[in-house]
Structure formats: C-alpha cells, structure tokens
Amino acid sequence: MPAQLNNQTTLHEGRIFRLVRENVTLENGVVTELDVIRHPGAAAIIPFISQNTLLLIKQYRHAAGGFIWEIPAGTRDPGESALACAKRELIEETGFSARDWVDLGEITPLPAYSDERIHIFGATNLTPSKQHLDQDEILDVHEVLLDDALSMIRNNQIQDAKTISGLFMATLMMKDQ
Fold first, then answer.
1. Model pTM greater than 0.90?
2. Which domains does the chain have, with CATH numbers?
3. pLDDT tens digits, one per residue of 59-102
4. Nearest Cα residue to 122 out of 103, 138, 108
C-alpha cells in the first residue's frame, strides 16, 4: 500500500517546479509531513557524432557555482512526450538534429524529495541544424571521445548525475550491440 495523502499545501510555485508540503500516512501507520518538489520531468540526450565520439556541453549553472560538463537536456513542456522534448532540446542546445533515436531508460535523480524523472535517449545520424539557446543558457558544445568522457567521470570533471547515468547507459547499450 503506498502512502496515503491526507492534505497538500503549495509552499512555492516556481517557473519550472512547485514545492509542496504533504501530510501523509505511511504504510506503517506513521503520519508525517514531507516537503516535495513536483517537477514536470525532463529528457536528456547522448548525441553520437560517430560510434566513439559524442557531444557534451559545458554549461553555466548558477546553483553549482560555475560551468559544468553535461549532456544536452531540458524540461518537458506541458503535454510534451519525453522523445519530443529530447528532439527539441538537442536542436536548441547543440545545433544538431538526429535521424535515429533509442530509449536508454529513465532515472530518478532526487527520489528523497522530488518526483522528477529524466528520460535518457541515445541519438545518432546527426545533421547540422540551427542552435537556439534560451535567453538564460550559456554553454559551449564540444566533441568528446566516449573514452575521454568516461575518464572525465573518473577524474571528477563530470559530476552531473544525469550525465554520468546517461554515459553509463549508453556504454551498456553499445556493449549489447
């Protein structure tokens, strides 16, 4: 039996997510209050230029205190499928579109306090398109060898959870082929 929601109060309504306080009765009978971020979900992409080369972005993230290495990703618009979001974000952030897509899986990055789910896709057969960054996006696109990206994880240059997960999922997919 999942937890029973007794009541919910919105604490903050942001541009992307809502912060709510939920009073719930847990399966063991304990009644507690939990603060939860309600998020519309996101999609992230491992865009392969070739079998061994992919695109990474180095993006400014104010909350992280500077530029970090990431895979392209973005928040889903209302009613938008995860794949449609991935296709839109790949073009917006990298200036490439992809002919072929594979669903690599889904992650839940912050399950203790957020319902956000990130769908991760592999994209191949890329063709140049027109990059259109959002006004608040500051990023550079880089071609990186897959082995170098994995080394960047080992060397603590890549710390972003969706990027680490996505690269791992893509590596597993390639081993299965």
1. yes
2. 4-38 (no CATH), 42-176 (3.90.79.10)
3. 999 999 999 999 999 999 999 999 999 999 999 999 999 999 99
4. 103
